[in-house]
Structures are given as structure tokens and as C-alpha cells.
Specification:
Layout: E1 3-6, H1 16-25, E2 30-36, H2 48-54, E3 61-67, H3 75-81, E4 85-89, H4 96-105, E5 109-114, E6 132-136, H5 152-164, E7 171-174, H6 181-188, E8 192-195, H7 197-200, H8 205-216
Parallel strand pairs: 1-8, 2-3, 3-4, 4-5, 5-6, 6-7, 7-8
Helix pairs in contact: 2-3
This protein binds D-xylitol-5-phosphate (DX5) and zinc ion.
């Protein structure tokens, strides 16, 4: 099943509640929230208080992408704010297993992400603790960047690893997803697609989401 997870990083922050409402109405399954700490990535974005403010505006899966160092420090706060899925970076955790276990213990789904240059083999030991894998196809930090084609190989490697291990873990892809690049990511094994610019920079977000879904199926 194809899932579209619009990244609110590209929406109009002065109308956040309206944008979130519109996103759910437009047929998106997930809402992708990019949390950045100015340390793991060179940008600052959203904290738990913003997540809890927008949570009541949409009955949709809140898909949180934590681009912060030692995210275990904040997962309980994000759960309280309304997170359904919490994804952390392999590169940002001193104890990945403990972090993933703690996310599950809170009742959230646990996602694990790697940046484009990280060896996908790093994911292998943690698959038993993962409910989702997030493959970054841009360097994390900013919306509106171009898809890094070399990272498609990471999607393929993760898909192979998951299959070989007999796991049932969906692969999410994030960064530079367009009506074109989504085909490449889908063919490599991704089923959950984050899209910021390709949704919110379009005049009709419902149509944009529909088009992405159609292209993922090609
Ligand atoms: C980048 C973020 C992405 C970003 C995607 O660090 O994780 O979620 O907002 O934006 P687009 O789709 O514009 O590349
Ligand atoms: Zn993201």
C-alpha cells in the first residue's frame, strides 16, 4: 500500500492549523513533522509544543522525524504531544537499541533513519526493534533539495536486508520526492513517501497527493 506523508516543513507556518486540516482532507495518510535541533542538522524547527497545538486539527497519523542528537531525551514529550510514529537517526543515538525500545514502550511505532552517506548495513542489527526504516534521499536539514540518486541504492539494500531477515518493515523515503523521483524510490522498495515541496508548493494539494500516489504505482 502506498502512503503519502506530506512534510509540513514546506507549508505556510502562519496558517499551520489550516494547512494540517487541509492535508488530512486531501487524503494523506500520514503527516510528517521534521524536528531539528541545530546540532545534528544545521536548522531549527518544531518542538513538542507545536506538535500538541496542531494535533487536534487532524485525525491523521503523526509521523515524527527527529533530527536531533540523543533523541531518547525527548521521546516521552513527543509521545505526549501526539506522536504515532517516532523516527530517530542511527547517527544521532549513542544507544540505538535502547532508543527504539523506549519508543515502543511508549506505545509509538519506532522508525530508524540513515543519511544518504551512511552504510545501510548499519541498519541490520536494529531491524528486530524497528517498525519502519527511513531512507534519506537528501542531506537532512532543509526542504526543497534535489533527490540524491545514489541513495536509491540504500533503499534497495534496506529492502533486501528486510526480506532476507524475514521482517515485515515498511521503507519510508524522504527528500526530493517529486512525480518523477517517486517512481525510482518505489521501484527500489519504498512504500511510504515524504513530500514537502511536491505537496505544499503546488496550487492544489489534494491533486498533488493524488498525482504522487499514481506515480508511485507506475
Ligand atoms: C529534510 C526533511 C524532509 C523535507 C522534505 O531534512 O527531513 O522531510 O522537509 O522536503 P522536500 O520534499 O521538499 O525535499
Ligand atoms: Zn523528514
Amino acid at each position: 500500500m502506498t502512503i503519502i506523508s506530506p512534510s509540513i516543513l514546506s507549508c505556510d507556518f502562519s496558517k499551520l492549523a489550516e494547512e494540517v486540516k487541509l492535508t488530512a482532507k486531501a487524503g494523506a495518510e500520514y503527516l510528517h513533522v521534521d524536528v531539528m535541533d541545530g546540532m545534528f542538522v544545521p536548522n531549527l524547527t518544531i518542538g513538542p509544543c507545536v506538535v500538541s497545538a496542531i494535533r487536534p486539527h487532524a485525525d491523521i497519523v503523526f509521523d515524527l522525524h527527529l533530527m536531533i542528537n540523543e533523541p531518547i531525551r525527548y521521546i516521552a514529550e513527543f509521545k505526549k504531544a501526539g506522536a504515532d510514529i517516532i523516527t530517530v537517526h542511527e547517527e544521532a543515538c549513542s544507544d540505538v537499541t535502547e532508543t527504539l525500545k523506549a519508543i515502543r514502550a511508549l506505545g509509538c511505532k519506532a522508525g530508524l533513519s540513515i543519511k544518504p552517506k551512511t552504510d545501510p548495513e548499519k541498519l541490520r542489527p536494529y531491524l528486530p526493534y524497528c517498525d519502519m526504516i527511513l531512507i534519506m534521499t537528501v542531506e537532512p536539514g532543509f526542504g526543497g533539495q534535489s533527490y540524491i540518486h545514489a541513495a536509491t541504492e540504500n533503499i534497495r539494500a534496506a529492502a533486501k536486508m528486510i526480506k532476507e531477515g524475514g521482517y515485515d518493515i515498511p521503507i519510508e523515503v524522504d527528500g526530493g520526492i517529486t512525480n518523477e523521483t517517486i517512481k525510482e524510490a518505489a521501484a527500489a522498495g519504498a512504500t511510504i513517501f515524504v513530500a514537502g515541496s511536491a505537496v505544499y508548493k503546488k496550487p492544489d494539494i489534494a491533486r498533488a497527493i493524488w498525482e504522487l500516489r499514481e506515480n508511485a504505482a507506475i
